[in-house]
Amino acid sequence: MRNLRLDICYEGTRYRGWQRLATTDNTIQTKLEQTLSRILDEPIEVSASGRTDAGTHAIGQVVSFHCESTMPCEEILSQLRRYLPEDIGIYSCKNASPRFHARLNAKTKTYKYRVWNSEQPCVFDRKFVYVDRRPLDLEKMRQAAALFLGEHDFAAFSANKRSKKSTVRYIHSLNIERVGEEVVFTVTGNGFLHHMVRIMVGTLLEVGCGDRAAQSIEDLFEAERADTGALVPACGLCLMEVTY
């Protein structure tokens, strides 16, 4: 039994997210599994480093799967590029160690969230940014962002109330910068809860426009979901990198 690793990217606009669903075939996992099963002539189930939301994009997603096929990696890569839809791309296909698992072995993940913060029209990047034209105080947002660093319980920043798993995560960095007409949030952590990055960004935007004090972040680690910021749209979010 071989264990293979794929490094992939996708534009998530038209998909219902990464994860396979019983109600639709329109997920990235389903498209990839169907294509691999066809190419390798055997049932294939894949695991990704993380389950991105509906409408979320990825530049640096990592996938692993097992197969019996002896088809060379170069041929698998060529066939995937031939048969997958144009909004799912494959950078590489490689043999991995038998124990490699895309999710379980991940050490850090980096996400980027793009906010179009301008009165100028945003035509060509509209599928990849959240438009928020309110004046934003970047310095106050940076002060608030610093309070997310380190290990905290992020239960109030998650949409999943039923999970019995730990909601403690470690944030290594959270940078905010203005790039032209955009304000870009880049966050790296050892893992993220469902909707966590989008709620963090929504909370920081409330700080930036003066609706919330920067120091209030400290109190939110013992608060409820209703106390944290708005869930910003998925279109602005992109998985950039996974480290192992």
Short recap of the structure:
The protein has 244 residues and is of the alpha+beta class. It has five helices and ten strands; from the N terminus they run E-H-E-E-H-E-E-E-H-E-E-E-H-H-E.
Plain-language structure description:
The longest helix has 13 residues, at 28-40. α1 (28-40) crosses α2 (73-83) and α3 (138-146) packs across α4. The protein has 5 helices and 10 strands. β2 (46-48) and β3 form a beta hairpin. The protein is of the alpha+beta class and 244 residues long. The chain has helices at residues 28-40, 73-83, 138-146, 196-208, 217-220, and strands spanning 2-10, 46-48, 57-67, 88-95, 108-116, 130-131, 150-153, 168-179, 182-189, 237-243. The mean pLDDT is 97. Strands 1, 2, 3, 4, 5, 6, 7, 8, 9 and 10 form a 10-stranded mixed sheet that branches.
How many β strands by DSSP?
Answer: 10
Please, what is the average pLDDT?
97
End-to-end CA span? 22 Å
- Parts with pLDDT < 50 across at least 5 consecutive residues: none
Order of H and E elements: EHEEHEEEHEEEHHE
Tell the overall outline: globular
Main beta-sheet annotation? 10 strands, mixed
Strand residues, percent: 25-35%
Structural class of the helices, strands and pairings?
A: alpha+beta
Radius of gyration: 19 Å
Helix content: 10-25%
Please, how many helices? 5
